């Protein structure tokens, strides 16, 4: 028989309610997995499909939540707290050490759980409906609250030397799944050792913190005559968010990329999103053209005739091209092309994939 202890009906009902809540959170984590698997590409799809850790984590999470629910239901029906068999042989000291250690782990796990939730929510911002964003953050915040309340309740009980102190089932069970996930990701990260191709020289052009509190994504580069290179990127207040405060930045090299100028902010429109640089160099006029979008609604272009030292006032291409007002605007990512005929071609979109081109 499984070991058991007497407990109040109120405590057992609370345990059952918490187990049901934890199971709901576990199922929502599965929903999030499906949403990202079906709605996103690029790096999100690579991470989700390339790692076995996430499916195993979900199986452990749902399995432990179901196990906690079953034990809680049986405990309420019998009026006693039914524990896993191994705990019946533990000494008081061993049980206290388990409660202290597992409560500490649950408290430690709260921060990475919330950070992962934040990164996923920012990554989905603007790509899925707001209600889905709320659904995405709910299990992360909910699990963090369950861990916090359960651990503090247990630690307070131990401090007061209360009898029959135990972790709530939901917090204890699902904690194993998160321990596996974080430990597995830690091992994978520690063993990850990507190597550059032999003979390839490299350097970081845009690194998090070059500007205080900002990260960088969506790079592009053009090569000009005289060993001049121009590198562009989005400067983001939240690196994983495609929205919020985003600026366009640039660095120049005059020696073929061996050294680079300090970072220069080309476009800063406050809290607006300035994004999607897709530069192209016209060798016939020695002009660099730089199209970009603002708030995914308006397409602009600016130009430089002095290898990126100065830039013209941006021109509204959406109006010039007769694009529908508010149509989705996104260039690249990457460069435009100067064809041998002199035509300049830039990849873009205004609700669907297109190119814009100029013959003059």
Q: Can you tell me about this structure?
A:
The structure is a single chain. With 360 residues, the chain is an alpha+beta fold. 44% of the residues lie in helices and 20% in strands. The chain is built from 7 helices and 14 strands. The chain has helices at 9-39, 42-50, 53-78, 92-124, 130-159, 169-191, 317-321, and strands at residues 4-6, 80-82, 215-224, 228-236, 246-253, 264-267, 274-275, 280-282, 287-294, 298-304, 315-316, 337-338, 344-349, 353-358. Strands 7, 8, 9, 10 and 11 form a 5-stranded antiparallel beta sheet that branches. The protein has a 4-stranded antiparallel beta sheet with strand order 3-4-5-6, with no helix packed on it. Helix 1 runs antiparallel to helix 3, helix 1 packs parallel to helix 6 and helix 4 packs across helix 6.
Oligomer: single chain
Overall radius of gyration? 28 Å
What are the secondary-structure elements, in order, as H or E?
EHHHEHHHEEEEEEEEEHEEE
Number of helices: 7
Mean pLDDT level? 84
How many beta-strand elements?
14
Largest sheet report: 5 strands, antiparallel
Shape: elongated
Strand content range:
15-25%
Distance from N terminus to C terminus (CA atoms, Å) equals 86 Å
Structural class: alpha+beta
């Amino acid at each position: 028989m499984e070991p058991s202890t007497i407990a109040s009906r109120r405590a057992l009902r609370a345990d059952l309610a918490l187990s049901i809540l934890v199971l709901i959170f576990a199922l929502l984590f599965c929903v999030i997995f499906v949403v990202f698997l079906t709605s996103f590409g690029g790096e999100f799809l690579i991470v989700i499909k390339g790692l076995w850790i996430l499916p195993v984590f979900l199986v452990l999470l749902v399995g432990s939540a179901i196990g906690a629910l079953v034990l809680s239901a049986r405990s309420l029906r019998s009026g006693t707290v039914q524990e896993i068999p191994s705990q019946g042989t533990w000494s008081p000291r061993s049980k206290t050490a388990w409660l202290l250690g597992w409560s500490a782990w649950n408290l430690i796990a709260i921060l990475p759980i919330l950070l992962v939730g934040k990164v996923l929510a920012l990554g989905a911002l603007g790509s899925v409906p707001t209600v889905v964003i709320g659904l995405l953050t709910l299990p992360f915040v909910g699990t963090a609250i369950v861990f916090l309340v359960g651990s503090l309740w247990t630690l307070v009980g131990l401090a007061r030397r209360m009898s029959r102190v135990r972790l709530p089932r939901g917090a204890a069970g699902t904690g194993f799944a998160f321990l596996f996930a974080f430990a597995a990701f830690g091992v994978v990260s520690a063993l990850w050792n990507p190597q550059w191709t032999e003979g390839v020289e490299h350097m970081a052009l845009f690194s998090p913190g070059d500007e205080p509190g900002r990260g960088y994504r969506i790079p592009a580069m053009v090569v000009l005559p005289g060993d001049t290179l121009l590198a562009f990127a989005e400067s983001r207040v939240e690196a994983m968010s495609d929205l919020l405060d985003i600026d366009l930045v640039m660095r120049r090299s005059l020696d073929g990329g061996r050294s680079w100028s300090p970072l220069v902010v080309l476009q800063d429109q406050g809290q607006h999103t300035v994004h999607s640089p897709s530069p192209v160099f016209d060798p016939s006029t020695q002009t660099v053209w730089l199209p970009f979008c603002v708030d995914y609604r308006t397409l602009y272009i600016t130009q430089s005739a002095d290898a990126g030292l100065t830039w013209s006032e941006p021109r509204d291409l959406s109006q010039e091209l007769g694009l529908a007002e508010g149509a989705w605007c996104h260039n690249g990512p990457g460069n435009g092309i100067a064809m041998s005929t002199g035509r300049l071609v830039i990849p873009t979109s205004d609700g669907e994939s297109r190119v814009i081109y100029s013959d003059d």
